[in-house]
Amino acid sequence: MFRPAILRQAVKALGQSTRPAAPRFLRPLSATAPRFQKDDSDDPLIKATTRAPEGAAGESEGKYARTDENVVIEYPDDENMPPSPVVQGRGGMHFKRTLAQFSLENRVTLVTGGARGLGLVMAQGIVASGSNLAIVDLNRDEAGESAQKLVDQFQKENPGLEDLPKVTAHYADVSNPDSVNNALSEVLANHGRIDHLVTSAGFTENFDAISYPHDRIQKLWGVNVDGTYLFATGVAKHLMERKAPGSIVMIGSMSGAIVNVPQPQAPYNAAKAAIRHLASSFAVEWAVHDIRVNCISPGYMLTALTRKILDENPELRDKWISLIPTGKMGVPEDLMGAVTFLLSDASKYITGADLRVDGGYTLT
Ligand SMILES: NC(=O)c1ccc[n+]([C@@H]2O[C@H](COP(=O)([O-])OP(=O)(O)OC[C@H]3O[C@@H](n4cnc5c(N)ncnc54)[C@H](O)[C@@H]3O)[C@@H](O)[C@H]2O)c1
């Protein structure tokens, strides 16, 4: 969920901002101004509540359930982005029995944003489940290196297997329709067909809503929303032309259902809500063509990038973790099973669903 290379470098959360500090004052849990003040101490309903009097919680009242524009999260330049390793010993070492319907054998899957981060690890799970793979990413070189690493890891985890998966790397800027069409043609020329799509290309950044530069909002929505839309419609069109069934998984975020605190990120939250509802809308529109569309909404996941940011900012890490019922952030491997399930025949009757992989964050 983090955006490389934008305007701000390394987290300076909570009070280390160069911006002037916002005035601090106590406020009630609801910020809605009362229409008029009246003495309601005799009101039987008020008397019956266990509501604490305003201000009873002291300084911490409302502290954690608000965005704070003083929280500034800054991201490394592209050159300083930490590369993602493929994970070891988690996806493969097969020959454990499992339901055949979870298999993706003889399928071709396209993963956008698969060069690194969550996309790369989901791609690894997809390859481990038997699929051939096309990684599509803005970063062509890293996509190529990751493709090779995936095949190497597969070989290590499946010693003696001669039939190796075909994994290719392709360039696209997912927000650009021509670039998307070129990438789709390239993938089809290489693999002959596409059965599954996972849209993981995306990023976030943090500005308070008032200061958010408009061109950056458009860029964020362009990559997260348009990019998802363009790839999903492109793949669905191909499946309809082939008269073939297929399934698509869009990577949203828990931010599409809740508002993260304390870092402000309104356009990202709206983008992820849009992705979730696009999945539902496409699911209904394409059900008749046997094309399923589902959404995965991850919570806070420890990628190479989030690990770097949070290692440098333990206070922010502790705040995030305090809000997660399971008491820990997720790891990218936690998405391997979820994505395989939703792509495979194991979820044949599931479409338009939003699968939250968030350690329970959105429940509280
Ligand atoms: N990491 C988290 O905690 C988290 C949580 C919830 C949702 N998500 C979502 O998961 C997805 C992946 O996030 P991540 O943490 O792996 O990010 P990441 O930055 O590690 O990886 C994103 C990948 O997308 C590629 N990309 C970016 N813009 C692109 C464009 N215009 N065209 C093509 N490729 C592009 C990048 O090159 C990179 O390989 C995003 O949609 C993000 O919003 C992440």
Structure write-up:
By secondary structure, this protein is of the alpha/beta class. It has a domain at 100-304 and 330-363: Rossmann fold. 34% of the residues lie in helices and 10% in strands. It has helices spanning 44-48, 117-128, 140-157, 177-191, 214-242, 266-286, 304-311, 314-322, 336-343, and strands at residues 108-112, 132-137, 167-171, 196-199, 246-251, 291-298, 354-357. A seven-stranded parallel beta sheet has the order 3-2-1-4-5-6-7, with helices on both faces. Helix 2 packs parallel to helix 3 (140-157), helix 2 (117-128) packs across helix 9 (336-343) and helix 5 (214-242) packs parallel to helix 6. It is globular and about 75 Å long. The relative contact order is 0.15. The site of nicotinamide-adenine-dinucleotide has 32 residues, from helix 2, helix 5 and helix 7.
Secondary-structure element sequence? HEHEHEHEHEHEHHHE
The average pLDDT score comes to: 87
CATH homology group of the domain at 100-304 and 330-363: NAD(P)-binding Rossmann-like Domain
Strand residues, percent: 5-15%
Query: What is the total tally of β strands?
Result: 7
Helix count from the secondary structure assignment: 9
The kinds of small molecule bound in this structure are: nicotinamide-adenine-dinucleotide
Distance from first to last alpha carbon: 21 Å
| Rg measurement, Å | 23 Å
Helix residue percentage: 25-40%
Biggest sheet record: 7 strands, parallel
Named CATH architecture of the domain at 100-304 and 330-363: 3-Layer(aba) Sandwich
Query: Can you tell me the overall shape?
Result: globular
Name the CATH class of the domain at 100-304 and 330-363.
Alpha Beta
Low-confidence stretches: 1-36
CATH topology of the domain at 100-304 and 330-363, by name, is Rossmann fold
Q: How is the largest sheet built, in terms of strand order?
A: 3-2-1-4-5-6-7
Structural class: alpha/beta
GO molecular function, one term: oxidoreductase activity, acting on NAD(P)H, oxygen as acceptor
Pfam families: adh_short_C2 (PF13561)
Region (Disordered): 32-63
Family: Belongs to the short-chain dehydrogenases/reductases (SDR) family.
